[in-house]
Amino acid sequence: MDIVLFYVLFFGIVLLILYLRNKNRDKNYALSADVLAGLDAIHLDHVKCETFSSGMKGKGYYFSRCELFITEDALVIFGLGRIKWLRQLSDPLILTSNSAGYVFKLPGAKLIKPKTINLNSFGGDIYIEFVQPGFIGTNVEFRLKGISTAHKERLQFLNTSS
């Protein structure tokens, strides 16, 4: 009986921690979505995404679906967690050359300087690679699938800013 109680308490605490962390991120997401809506951003919901990360600081980059916001000079990525019934959000990732215009407006955002961007990669995917700096750098790769040609045209600024 004690072991059953232990497992119930353990999983209850884990779910509570996930809920509280996600509650804060959900509040930041709502604020960020309001800011991006004011910038006339195109919103793409539940985009299929493949991620690969190698290095020590790879956490926060593993997600299978994401939400994209495309503005005139930025691509903002919100990763969605792998647990289908629990909407886990990652902190926003911003790809832009106008860092001052977005970092202070979007709470918890990480500014990314892409190493490689290919808007027409194998299979029509968008391929983005960047290095997270640190003592031991982390190499992160994204493949965004199912993005239309019209939206890829809107993302042409990424090729000129990288």
Summary?
With 162 residues, this protein is an alpha+beta fold.
What can you tell me about this protein's structure?
There is one protein chain. It is built from three helices and eight strands. With 162 residues, the protein is of the alpha+beta class. The protein has one domain (2-161). The protein has an eight-stranded mixed sheet with strand order 5-4-3-2-1-8-7-6. A hairpin with a 3-residue loop joins strand 2 and strand 3 (74-80).
Strands of the largest sheet, in order across it? 5-4-3-2-1-8-7-6
Oligomer: single chain
Q: What is the number of helices? A: 3
As residue ranges, the low-confidence spans are none
- Please identify the structural class as seen in this structure: alpha+beta
Strand content: 25-35%
Number of strands: 8
Helical content, roughly? 25-40%
N→C terminal distance:
59 Å
The helix-strand sequence is: HEEEEEEEEHH
Mind describing the biggest β-sheet?
8 strands, mixed
Q: How would you describe the shape?
A: globular
Could you tell me the radius of gyration in angstroms? 17 Å
- Our count of domains comes out at 1
Average pLDDT across residues?
Answer: 80
Helix and strand topology:
Blueprint: H1 2-38, E1 42-54, E2 65-70, E3 74-80, E4 93-96, E5 110-112, E6 114-118, E7 126-132, E8 138-145, H2 149-154, H3 157-161
